[in-house]
Amino acid sequence: MRLDQATSQRIQAEAAGSQARAQLGLQQANLDQAQANVRVTEADLGQAQADLARYRAIDPKAITKQQLDNQGATVKSAAARLDANRQAVAGARAQIEAQRAAVAAQDAAVEQAKVSVRNAELQLSYTTIRAPADGQVTKRTVEMGNVVNAGQSLLAVVQDAMWVTVNFKETQLAAMQPGQYVRVRVD
After folding, report:
1. Which distant-in-sequence residues (6+ apart) come within 8 Å of 52 by Cβ?
2. CA distance 25 to 100
């Protein structure tokens, strides 16, 4: 259950990281657009300033005062748009930096989630008890559902191969040979 939760959190963190990276791409596109708008308004301002210079160079009787005023207003308007677009570029750069920080935070969250998954896997591995040898369980002191402590004795395993320890006198050893069959009786 903990492993499933940790895995789910890792998947969510990875999805959020992907979303943060996509958002960073969007913010970069917004910056590119804002920079293009700056270039457009710079060109508009240059054109308006050139037109105003031409109007001023013309004989004042050839143009009306209103045309000259309109061109002056066009220059001021283009300059204001240029300032606004430069501010938009600065704002877009700030948003990119904020999004980069968000991406870094999501990367850290993904790493944390991966650590949580590995920890849950490790904890799950502790729930499996392996006997050091084949044999039969004896002296079982735990039941299903009991909580056990680290190092607590749970059971004893008796190996299937039986050994008998026998103490013979030296006088009995002379008649014994390796591989000889014996009959054992247990009291």
Report:
1. 68, 71, 72, 74, 75
2. 10
pLDDT in tens, 27-63: 999 999 999 999 999 999 999 999 889 888 887 788 8
151 DSSP 8-state letter? T
Q: Cβ of 78: how many Cβ atoms within 10 Å?
A: 19
Using CB atoms within 10 A of its CB, is residue 113 exposed (0-12), middle (13-18) or buried (19+)? Answer: buried
For 101, the token pair is 């920080």
Cα separation values, 72 from 19, 48, 79, 174, Å: 47, 8, 11, 130
Instruction: For residue 117, count other CB atoms closer than 10 A to its CB.
Output: 20
Residue found under tokens 């390796």: 178
pTM of the model: 0.59
Tokens of 78: 């283009």
Alpha-carbon gap, residue 103 to 84, rounded angstroms: 28
Mean pLDDT of the chain: 87
User: Which letter does DSSP use for residue 138 in this model?
Assistant: E
Q: How far apart are CA 26 and CA 99, in angstroms?
A: 10
**Beta carbons within 8 Å of 167's beta carbon, 6+ residues apart:** none
